[in-house]
Amino acid sequence: TTLLVAPAFAQDWPQRQITMVVPFAAGGPTDTVARMVAERMSADLGHQIIVENIGGAGGTLGAGNVAKADPDGYTVLLHHIGMATSATLYRNLAYDTLNAFDYVGLVTEVPMVVVARKDFEPNDFTAFISYVKDNADNLTLANAGIGSASHLCGMMLMSALEAPLVTVPYKGTGPAMTDLLGGQTDIMCDQTTNTTQQIKGGTIKAYAVTTPERLELFPDLPTAMESGLDGFDVSIWHGIYTPKGTPAEVNERLSKSLQSALADEGVVKAMADLGTAPSPAEDATPAALQAKLEAEIARWQPVIEAAGVYAD
Ligand code: MLT
């Protein structure tokens, strides 16, 4: 019966600290976004939101943990587009993506950049394209596992270039970046939240952005589309979810707290410095996130099926 009427605890939730699961290693782009909003949401809620990194299986391990958590408002998931792509990529997923979660809201949408180790030979994206086509089987592409944003972008890049690169999976693109900086891997497609500092510092090489328009942050970087990669348009939206059955009052309270965090000028500035911006308040809502997830599962399913890339 507790599921039929709002349990008493929903009225005076939260009473203790909350866990925000990030399904990738610390130090990567998902972790960066999570810690930004968790800090401000904690202040708004009056109880600490602790970020817990559960990496592995392209984000599906952490998502699965939250799917099984108590729907009491004390465990939330911050995940990105991988929530949608994994629904097609994983044929034995431990959870039913559209029935295992409730929704809080969208957080931000982050552009991606095609980057390489700093001494990678090609000097521009046109040269990059022909070099990668010619040397595909000797080049490594780092990602955060099947279902990650870097995997999706890498898959699109390999399909567009018809270049089956050797892929190297990590528990997040935080650790992947460490190896790229060290020259252990050759190429990565990663979010501006994780590449801006390195690009500005010249410790990695940037070739193109994955958005339809060039970025103010890097006006000299061409878009993949203007370089001839038709339809190469991918940005990484992030959302906050709760386990299915979490009281609506709790999801709504979390959404209000998220909206206040996204309106915080410190968050707006920090996101702008990293090439992104908060989702508008009307998108930081349960209905908007649910609609986005459903639309994105439908959008990426044919792309993934055409690429024939699955995780078994
Ligand atoms: C991804 O590629 O999905 C993310 O970069 C993983 C991460 O946040 O580390």
TrEMBL record:
Domain of life, source organism: Bacteria
Pfam families assigned to the protein according to its UniProt record, in alphabetical order: TctC
Q: Which key words tag this protein in UniProt? A: Signal
Task: Please verify whether the record's keywords include Lipid biosynthesis.
Answer: no
Name the SUPFAM superfamilies for this protein: Periplasmic binding protein-like II
Q: Which PANTHER family match?
A: BLR1237 PROTEIN, TRICARBOXYLATE-BINDING PROTEIN
Q: Which family does it belong to?
A: Belongs to the UPF0065 (bug) family.
What is this protein's record name? Uncharacterized protein UPF0065
Which taxonomic lineage does the organism of this UniProt entry have? Bacteria, Pseudomonadati, Pseudomonadota, Alphaproteobacteria, Rhodobacterales
